[in-house]
Design brief:
Blueprint lengths: L2 E5 L6 E7 L9 H11 L16 E5 L1 E2 L2 E2 L4 E6 L30 H8 L5 H7 L4 H16 L4 E9 L2 E2 L7 H9 L8 H17 L5 E8 L15 H10 L4 E6 L10 H4 L3 E4 L3 E4 L7 E2 L2 E2 L4 E7 L10 E3 L6 E3 L10 H23 L5 H16 L1
Helix pairs in contact: 1-4, 4-9, 7-9
């Protein structure tokens, strides 16, 4: 079973990710992992920390001469900013610096303090920080390299920032992928990108932040991933849960999503056709590539809604946990908008879920066993 865990704090020495369940013989590109980490750090509206960190993954177990061994794979991403935080984040010794006592609205600060019985918000915010997603992007990059063997391709693009909507009508998935690579905001609509940049600039000047929406598109997915037989095996449920696990994501759509509420059945479903060359096919994709909890062979389309980041330079009101007086919430170096980065994290989480489903259906201890099973399945579908 493909599974992973991450460890580490935002300003600790490093982030660590461990993957279990990868088949032996998977050729790993460390350069691709580092490129995905780089993409996560890009985007207009990112904060000052992106000028400090240059994330790179160091493989410390499970890979030998570029190939997986079948044993757990461990990656470490060192935090370059650790040198500035050693006294405040030391594992042992005497506590240095003032405690953070003004929890931020919209963050894990106060619920975490209450749950874990802590007296310093930093004990919560360090792990709750979206810095943790760097480790997930590294895991997702490895998952993508596994999926690529089965022909699966994943792209993302930003469709909304601060209410500015991108228009990609008339663009196919390949065109969207090409256009978003030329964009500082991973947006496939140049006119919308200009307006988004203006909105981010205005928010920065106000001491505010902006959220938005991104879309993940997965092409060349085999039909039959996931299952209808139990709630926790449904592909759409697993994708939604994975997306909602990303910090600041508050909504998920698959296919037409919430637009289904306005569609009659005659316009909501993807009619099925057949011919000798294409076999079963559909001319529309309202379902976003998933029907009944199972991939149907169409591209999988998932959207995530990211709320505005809760760390504001013009801080909101809060309560000091030491005396219960009204104060302004804690402020630290932060982004104004991180929707393009969230899109990269979304790619990673979708890749992880699909890699899990692929290995569940085509189990194999080696890559060759896995690919033989995939090939056998493809030939069965053709028959």
């Amino acid at each position: 079973m493909f599974r992973f865990i991450t460890a580490g704090e935002s300003h600790g020495p490093a982030l660590t990710a461990m993957i279990e369940g990868l088949p032996a013989g998977l050729k790993i590109s460390q350069e691709q992992v580092n490129e995905d980490l780089r993409r996560r750090q890009q985007g207009y509206g990112r904060g000052g920390r992106m000028k400090i960190e240059t994330d790179r993954a160091e493989f410390t177990s499970g890979v030998r001469f570029g190939e997986t061994l079948g044993s757990p794979v461990t990656m470490v991403i060192h935090n370059r900013d650790w040198t500035n935080w050693q006294e405040r984040m030391a594992p042992f010794g005497q506590e240095q610096g003032d405690a953070v006592t003004a929890p931020r609205p919209g963050h894990a600060d106060l619920p975490g303090l209450l749950k874990y019985e802590r007296e310093d918000v930093r004990d919560i915010l360090e792990r709750a920080s979206a810095r943790e997603t760097a480790a997930r992007v590294a895991v997702g990059s490895v998952a993508r390299q596994l999926l690529a063997l089965a022909g699966v391709d994943i792209i993302s693009h930003v469709v909304n920032i601060g209410g500015v909507m991108a228009d990609v009508s008339g663009c196919n998935y390949r065109e969207i992928g090409e256009r978003r690579q030329q964009s500082e905001l991973a947006c496939a609509d140049p006119q919308a990108e200009t307006a988004m940049i203006d909105a981010i600039t205005a928010a920065r000047e106000r001491g505010d932040s902006l959220g938005g929406t991104f879309e993940i598109i997965v092409s060349n997915v085999l039909p039959g991933l996931g299952s209808h037989v139990q709630w926790d095996r449904r592909l759409d449920a697993r994708l939604a849960g994975a997306m909602m696990s990303i910090q600041a994501i508050k909504g998920v759509e698959i296919g037409d999503g919430f637009a289904y509420a306005a569609l009659p059945g005659s316009a909501a479903h993807d009619e099925i056709f057949y011919d000798a060359d294409r076999r079963y096919y559909r001319d529309s994709n309202h379902a976003g590539g998933v029907e009944g909890g199972i991939s149907n062979g169409n591209p999988i389309v998932v959207r995530g809604v990211m709320k505005a980041i809760p760390t504001l330079m013009k801080a909101l009101r809060s309560v000091d946990i030491t005396n219960h007086e009204t104060v302004r919430a804690n402020t630290e170096r932060s982004d104004v908008c991180a929707v393009p980065a969230a899109a990269v994290v979304g790619e990673a989480m979708v890749a992880i879920v699909l890699a899990q489903c692929l290995l569940e259906k085509f189990a194999g201890d080696s890559v060759n066993d896995l690919l033989a099973a995939v090939d056998h399945y493809r030939r069965r579908l053709q028959r």
